[in-house]
Input
Amino acid sequence: MKLRKKKAYSVAIMGATGAVGEEMLGILEQRQFPVSKLVLLASARSVGKKYAYGGREIEVRELKEDSFEGIDIVLASAGGSISKRYAPLAVQAGAIVIDNTSAFRMDPEVPLVVPEINPKDIKKNNGIIANPNCSTIIMLVPLWPLHRANKIKRVIVSTYQAASGAGAKAMQELEDQSRAVLAGQKAAPQVFPHQIAFNLFSHNSAIKDEGYNEEELKMIKETYKIFHTDKIKVTATTVRVPVYRAHSEAIYVEFAKEPDLAEVRRILESAPGVRIVDDREKNYFPMPIEASGKDDVLVGRIRRDPTSPKGLWLFVAGDQLRKGAALNAVQIAEILCGRTVPVRV
Amino acid sequence: MKLRKKKAYSVAIMGATGAVGEEMLGILEQRQFPVSKLVLLASARSVGKKYAYGGREIEVRELKEDSFEGIDIVLASAGGSISKRYAPLAVQAGAIVIDNTSAFRMDPEVPLVVPEINPKDIKKNNGIIANPNCSTIIMLVPLWPLHRANKIKRVIVSTYQAASGAGAKAMQELEDQSRAVLAGQKAAPQVFPHQIAFNLFSHNSAIKDEGYNEEELKMIKETYKIFHTDKIKVTATTVRVPVYRAHSEAIYVEFAKEPDLAEVRRILESAPGVRIVDDREKNYFPMPIEASGKDDVLVGRIRRDPTSPKGLWLFVAGDQLRKGAALNAVQIAEILCGRTVPVRV
Output
């Protein structure tokens, strides 16, 4: 499906009161997305909540089956089961859905898109375009330009994932638990299965095939789909850390040929969506607090492996709510509209 | 050098008021180490500070050149430059020094010992025995029994290191900064180069050869020395996380032969100093808050790599102050005394 060319588009945000939904609203405004009408959809209990947008106030409406009449673009981030139910209805009503949940990502009929990597995949859609998993996006934005210059054969990644990946309530839990622990009280986990304050734990998604959790399987399978290859060996350990909203990842890459460090830096310097933060003398590298609120994925600790000539380490940090979710979705919407905004604003 | 066999030994703790020094005191008492006299040594500003030990109170004395007369065993953890200056004096005075700093670790005349791995190396000492780096110990305790059964060819490790590795002041900084951030104030880094509260950063040691920091080089070089081989390819990314006192590590291992998962579990179950925490159904794996205050290194996320038949992932957590430092040193002292206490108490 294509969007009919217009001066401005009616946009609905499904899950508008969530951490990603709120970020979508902010990014639409910040990037001056051509919006003719904005509809904020959420569950009944959020109805009446108001958000500022473009100098107006917009009230949240209840998500219903008939919410999509006259809507051109739906940005969906209300959970997988909500997307499964409502995305097809939105498409039936004539909208294109950019879905931030995992509901359709591995559906062969649905493109899975990172605008810096595979924007052309958007064309072959049946009304739904999937936004990849946050840790996948943050890993692949810097890896793609390197892969184009020197084929990546293998990725071994360990993640340091922020609370925001589990939503606004999880971020609040990190704050509340931290206060409790500092006051000498016990942390009482509710959103996460374990204490998040001053602790870390294996990612809180279900353990599946061969002991890998869903988050790890997403990083593996989505990489194949986005890069259009299953010739890369990808393996991952995903970990939740007491950080609010940016994911970090220690990525070990093996290339087909020995990487040249100067070339790697040159490629990353001109790569869209990437910023090098790599000052060895000052011991200054990517940090989640500095990636928070930023569009770029920060990349540093760029170094070869003396024991393995084709190996290369990177350490990256990217805002989970922005490039890992809301920004990537809005960028897809911009491509749908034929906007000529640069990927990096 | 050998310790002359006695019923009880005079022990000095050098750096007694530091995070590791205090832990050494507690562990000597807990393990009922045969102490005839205990001398607590620190810099002049700590003189007069008192610690309870075995129902008595012991006052801290100033570390001086003549502090070691009549001392059998020195447990040293007051920093590398202090050890370089005072350890030879202690040896001259007839003591054996178990040194927790990096001062002598790579000295070919000095054994570098993890009691579960290479206790026999203790014998060939010239009065100084080095305690390995904390992240090295925590990594190697579970890897050693696996290596004995199936040679390890390669280790790719990413760490999640606690504040305690930088001492008591760093732990206090994590607490103070967390309070400040929760109160809406700015964090003011003093001990660490960057904000530690709700953040993480590449390990705060100097960047050396080929972009590796000192912590990473310790993990690499100390592994060779402790395992008595340089045939293992070891590479590491070390990261500081907002956790108080236990280090975690995501360890990717490649063996000579395909590992058998049941055998790996069986080996780890009976390995000294190791406890398996690996409940896939409950999503329950090693966590730093559960490793804190414990002697064992917790090991979990034990799984193969479907893309690489010889690969295996482990996720470990170990108390940085205990097994990573003070406990390992006291265990070495126990071997010196010929104590027959089991390694696991």
